[in-house]
Write a structure and sequence with these properties.
It contains ten helices and nine strands. It has a five-stranded parallel sheet, sandwiched between helices. Strands 7-6-5-8 form a four-stranded mixed sheet, sandwiched between helices. Helix 2 packs across helix 10 and helix 4 runs parallel beside helix 5. The longest helix is centred in the C-terminal third of the chain and has 25 residues.
Amino acid sequence: MGTDAIRSNERYERLMRVAQSLPPVTTAVAHPCDEISLKGAVEAARLGLIAPILVGPPERIRGVAERAGLDLSGFPLKESAHSHDSAAKAVELVREGKAEALMKGSLHTDELMGAVVARETGIRTARRISHCFVMDVPGHKDPLIITDAAVNIAPDLEAKVDIVQNAIDLGQITGGVLDGPLALDNAIDEEAAAIKGIVSPVAGRANVLVVPDLEAGNMLAKSLSFLAGADAAGIVLGARVPIILTSRADSVLTRLASCAVASLVAEARRRSAGAAMP
């Protein structure tokens, strides 16, 4: 095993250790009706990352569990009729204060996000909702956050203000230094930036890559995952609770890493809420 693989594994293990030291996050899992989404939720619960509430048609969920050899005893199950109903009822659990995170199952992203942003029944805040990929790229010394590659199709400058602030909040820092536009090489490689004579505190050292549009972000993130072997965790911010938004092609490891990131976000919100209390 090469040093990059070792370092990558160490980062993942460190993330998991920190998340496992926190209380499990009560998570409404919307429509976990295929093996990989249900297995991801069950494994995340086994590792102490989340305390799932499974939302979906009970017989379908139990059938998947039986075929996959998964034990669902001890997991609450909220009945729904179909995928749209699952999304609505999962969001309702958040509105009722019964869940502090939301997790996508086997339904389409637009079904879940439609319920999240619904005007009367959703869980929007004043902040625009955006997605972040937290990526561990072999050969790159620091983790990268790529945003937005899943929610905002063609964000304007006003939208990018919120997208940037969501990423800063995810990094749990009190500020950030912004610069751009920068080509990818100039943003992440100090030597490339120096050769091109770019003088900037960001060039070559960027921790967050704010992409011009969803297509560019999706291509960048998926290229790093499938061609460079990067590990990724996906999280949606700007709603009342963190949303674990994974692709149907994502591995169980990616789903676990996403749960771990959501756990850290939820803990930061608990602390913020506690500090705000008189």
